[in-house]
Amino acid sequence: ADGLELEAQISLRRIAPRITQFWQQTETDDRLRDEFETRLIRHWSETFGLLHELYGTRYDFFYHLEQIILTAADAWVTRPESLRQVDRHREIEPDWFESEKVVGGALYVDLFSENLGRLREQIGYFQQLGLTYLHLMPLFAVRPGNNDGGYAISNYRSVDPRLGTIDDLRMLAEELRAVGITLVLDFVFNHTSDEHEWAKRAQSGDREYQQFYYIYPDRTEPDKYEHTLREIFPTVRRGNFTWHDGMEQWVWTTFNNFQWDLNYSNPAVFRAMLEEMFFIASTGIDILRFDAVAFIWKEMGTSCENLEGAHKIIQAFNRLVRIATPGVLFKSEAIVHPDDVVKYVGEDECQISYNPTLMALLWESLATRSTRLLNQSLSHRHNLPDGTAWVNYLRCHDDIGWTFDDADAAAIGINAYDHRNFLNHFYTGQFKGSFARGIPFQENIATGDMRIAGTLASLAGLELAIEKDDEAEKELAIGRMMLLQSITLSIGGIPLLYLGEEWGMLNDYDFVKDPAKAGDTRWVHRPKMKWEFLEELDDKIESGGGSIQRRIFEALQHLINVRKSQPALAGQQMELIKTDNTHLLGFVRMHQSHRLVVIANFADSLQSFSGNALRTAGMGRFFEDAITGQTFASSEDLHLKPYQTRWLCRV
Ligand code: OTU
Fold first, then answer.
1. Counting CB atoms within 10 angstroms of each CB, which of 29, 72, 105, 538 has the fewest?
2. Is 291 among the catalytic positions?
3. How many domains does the chain have?
4. What domain range is 137 assigned to?
């Protein structure tokens, strides 16, 4: 380690004159130089260590190192001053995203509002709902035809012309910022589309660009890799490689055939993608969603998922962001085993992460009406290191995979394989008595494995209830939707809605009519926004009345407002309460001197909880349900209606 530190210091001394030269060429003023150099020195040892570990054996390592640092310097000096202000502010307040005031939403620009210009007109809607964090699905230039919902990017520096321009994006970011909404965009960095300039150069025979990807002349290497690889999109093709007719070579394609995996063992790829990342950040992005993090590092003989190299790459990006654009945060998208999910979370890696385990287990509890597996998992998986947070969600643009830990299931006597089969049956509506209307995604005939597509409302029973025109069923469905929302809004972390949830968007089976979508059942839960319901929102109907859509909207809006009024809901700290009732989930949220107890009923029948236990949990003699405003005394038991959640605080 001593030797490495010496190398680090020598390298920095060698690079210093090049940086000075860069300041002179760009006529950078002293303040900006000082700020950058202070951060460079602060993060230098770690940055050097990571890059050295990744690329130190390359003969041209020093060249790449120097280029990387100059890329970072360029990102800082070309960054708009308004964003540098944000950087400076967030260095003083690094935990801004842990506030109870933060509530997120995700949407497709085209499906929600045609284009970026129209989206700007809808900022009022986000405010009305209470959102402070907006994730726009990928909006950059894509290949024609199927583009995997924007995840097959051809150019990271131009917006899909159907959605607008880079200037529209900048303007949107600025207007959102003005009203306190942060902007999240994907950094789709595992792969580019086959139409990206780098891929095209590779196709034309350019060897330098062929090294940007994993390209093989015959099956020898691919076959060796395949021994230990999973198939992520088995309905697209068998295996992970695609034959390219023009090049007459095999290309590594973890996802669709047209999504070429980038080769991060090549430092030129790291630097090229660093430049793209800084460009995206410069448009005014607060959080970058690191797509498909699990797959970015490959090693023969391994699963090529969640390898140490993947962590090093993200940590290196993280350090360079701390140096060049320090206000920017990373969000990890690792929809993998919970032990692996958490490894991407850290101040020095991704500060926030999707919480796929909670997501899957909330659906599991809804199906079983039992919180045992959820409790088991939460008991040792919820807490995260300081300076990090979960992003808690119920549905997103992707499928639901049952990524809970087999050992957690075994610990409470559940066979994980059978249980996943049950859940798949349940959520595709095949299980007797199921309320759900999901459809299979990536069903693997060979293994029997599948994931589930469907909207929150359809999976929670609203579609079936409407079809049956059964009022009681509709009530239960709304109850289930609000139950799940009440957990993600209170358990600790950033709640993230998938827009459409707020008015009970149902599955849309018309996607099969579009040949570019027909092969991907996730489109069932990606319909166009139906703005009609909004007109009714403004009508002066008595609250609690009106359409189902309106009722769902108002109930969710209310929950969001209540969340924001509860300082106990900041941060992550959560302690489970033993409820001695498998239908109930109970936990205490604590922040500074604030406390809030959450009790949720996953059964479709009335349940009670001991008032005494609530006193022990810190509720004193009298307490209030912040959701309904009702007050209770701990001398009596607390009652919960089917699917009811109570957020209790002392009075
Ligand atoms: C991500 O998801 C995106 O969210 C998907 O929309 C993309 O199709 C995909 O990457 C390719 O860009 O397989 O079904 O973590 O589950 O990364 C979703 C593992 C996916 C994968 C996840 C991927």
1. 538
2. yes
3. 3
4. 96-188+274-563
CA of 442 to the centre of ligand 1 (A): 12
The mean pLDDT value for 417-421 works out to 97
447 — pLDDT class (breaks 50, 70, 90) = confident
Q: Which residues contact 20 (CB under 8 A, 6 or more apart)?
A: none
Q: Domain end: 261, 285, 320, which one? A: 261
Q: Which atom of ligand 1 is nearest to the CA of 148?
A: 8
- Same domain for 417 and 519? yes
- Which atom of ligand 1 lies at the shortest distance from residue 188's CA? 12
Residues 466, 612 within the same domain: no
Helix/strand/coil for 337: coil
Same domain membership, residue 634 and residue 609: yes
Whether the model pTM is above 0.80 = yes
Q: Which tokens sit at 371? A: 């919180």
591 within a domain of the structure (yes/no):
yes
Q: How far apart are CA 72 and CA 529, in angstroms?
A: 39
Q: Give nearest CA residue, ligand 1 atom 2.
A: 292
Q: Is 439 found in the same domain as 308?
A: yes
Asked if the model's pLDDT at residue 541 lies above 60, the reply is no
Q: Is the ipTM of this complex over 0.90?
A: yes
Whether 68 maps to a domain, the answer reads: no
* Exposure string for 142-153, b = 16+ CB within 10 A, e = fewer: bbeebbbbbbbb
Report the distance separating Cα 45 and Cα 509, nearest Å.
54
Same domain, 559 and 446: yes
Distance CA 136, CA 496 (A): 12
Q: Is residue 39 part of a domain?
A: no
Q: How confident is the model at residue 538 (pLDDT cuts 50, 70, 90)?
A: low
Q: What is the distance in A from the centroid of ligand 1 to the CA of 341?
A: 14
Does the C-beta of 292 come closer than 6 Å to ligand 1?
yes
